[in-house]
Fold these 2 entries.
Entry 1:
Amino acid sequence: MGIGKKSKNIGKIAEGKTKETAGKVVGNESLEGKGRAQRMKGKVKQAVEKGKDTFKH
């Protein structure tokens, strides 16, 4: 996996976690849901990149 894509995916995961936590703190279910979705999207993309690396070697 390229370092750029890995950093970007980790950033999405962290950003999603931040939004999710902020949503919980302020009681905003919409923000919490958006954060959860963003975090999961980052995790899926990272898993896909790891799978690509597996097949390259």
Entry 2:
Amino acid sequence: MLHDHWQKSTYCGEGESCVYAAQDTTAIRIAQRADGVGPIVTAGAGAWAAFIQAVRAADLQSSRKP
């Protein structure tokens, strides 16, 4: 297994459940923990880029907790 560098979502606050992403040699890996333990979803680079574009287009800032 590669030594992943997990990046925390910028939508996470302190102490909240968060989403972490790490780039693999062929895809993006998404997990709920920075240590990568537990379920991991893998997406190709194109699918990940489309997901990020959709999230940005939806302007999810308005649905964040205060």
